[in-house]
Amino acid sequence: MEAMSLCIWKYPFCKLGFVNTRRTLYRTRLNVGLALSPSPVLLHTDGSGKFQEYKKGSGSNTVGIIGGLSVNSTLNFLRNLINWSSRDGESCPPFVLCSDPALNKELLSIERPSFPSVISKNEGTELDPTLIVENLRSKRIYLENSGSRCIVMPCHISHSWHDQISEGCSVPFLHMGECVAKELKEAKLKPLEAGSPLQIGVIATYATLKAGFYQEKLRNEGFEVVLPDKATMEHTVIPAIEALNRKDIEGAQNLLRIAVQVLLVRAANTVILASDDMRDLLPPDDPLVKKCIDPMDALARSTIKWAQSAKEGAKTGKSLIMSSLSSASASARTLVAKHTINTTSITKPLGTTIPPICSHLKFCTF
Predict the structure, then answer these.
(1) Phi and psi (nearest 5°) for 99?
(2) Residue 136 — pLDDT band, cuts 50, 70, 90?
(3) pTM, whole model, 2 decimals?
């Protein structure tokens, strides 16, 4: 696939961009016509940006992406997928993105009521995620039917229902919690004290922590999990997110630093920042950044590894097929040669003509 077009519907206009195999470009244009009919769909373009007819199953390493809690977090994931996969001159794997603003609001309604200030007003009520799960499942099926060979979901809260969404999926469906847990396992971390267990801290919203999938995946890899206690959640984590929503960046950074320090003091080797709001909140030169890991980044790296493996697998499979066909062609020639009769040695009756045997055969070179 030489180029892919990403269509993200967001009122009142549509942002359209494409990825070139030789260089990464971001183009934005106003298209009122497209904005009139919002739909989560990916369109293909040629190098000039003109639309082409979509072809199902266009690539053996095509990645299907289900948009997350916010468009910004999805775009951050895409930016990493594109930039990191193109570091060594390789082209970005083809991808299909399903982004739905209405779903974003529904996911937000699940996560935001987990704040204490909202819980106090809606105590005893719990939103039913059934419709959200059905929506996410339909998007997964859409991506499968669109030719995706792997599905990813760069959204923390959506992973609360990963098992239900992935049920019956015919292609690999990467789990963000599993990706980050395996990365930490491969990092061969050493305990802070000899003989003590490896502990990983997790900072997230109440809804994500309640779902428990990060804790489960980390424990499956042999880690012990350190979570913020009630006081830390109420006085640092949630206030940090609320400060960020008020555009109080400095206040949010200071509160997040305190939350991370609390888990490090409790002997956590590293801290997983499992929140869209906390992504890139700390500046890159902050010493605490080296002690933290973003699951979105782990998912992007795992997606790139899968795409590269699938691409190499397709090349190897093609080579084996061509080699088999070549061998079959050579065997056919040998077989025909063995059964060819020298007609010149046959005595012909007077007045008859014997056509050469196998003169009607034609060889097909594979």
Answers:
(1) -120, 130
(2) very high
(3) 0.72
pLDDT value of residue 4: 45
pLDDT (mean) for 276-293: 92
Give the pair of three-digit tokens for residue 338.
């063995």
Give the distance from CA 189 to its chain's centroid: 26
Instruction: Measure the CA–CA gap between 308 and 61, rounded to whole angstroms.
Output: 8
How far apart, in whole angstroms, are the C-alpha atoms of residue 275 and residue 73? 10
Closest CA to 91 of 82, 99, 79: 82
The answer to whether the CB of 78 falls within 8 A of the CB of 97 is yes
CA distance 159 to 166: 10
Q: How far apart are CA 239 and CA 243, in angstroms?
A: 6
The side-by-side arrangement of strands in the sheet containing 270-273 is 224-226, 199-203, 270-273, 292-293
Write the burial class of residue 183 (CB in 10 Å: 0-12 exposed, 13-18 middle, 19+ buried): middle
Asked if residues 166 and 148 have their Cβ atoms less than 8 Å apart, the reply is: no
Query: Backbone dihedral region of 222: left (phi > 0), alpha (psi from -120 to 50 degrees) or beta?
Result: left
DSSP H helical ranges for the chain: 32-35, 71-85, 101-111, 116-119, 130-145, 162-166, 176-186, 206-211, 213-220, 230-232, 238-245, 249-265, 295-338
Q: Is-contact 174 299, C-beta < 8 A?
A: yes
CATH code matching the domain that covers 56-313, chosen among 1.10.260.40, 2.40.160.210, 1.10.150.170, 3.40.50.1860: 3.40.50.1860
Q: Whole-angstrom Cα distance, residue 146 to residue 7?
A: 14
Mean pLDDT lowest among 96-100, 231-235, 278-282, 287-291: 278-282
Distance, CA of 112 to chain centre:
25
Q: Please tell me what DSSP assigns to residue 31.
A: -
Residue ranges per domain, the chain?
56-313
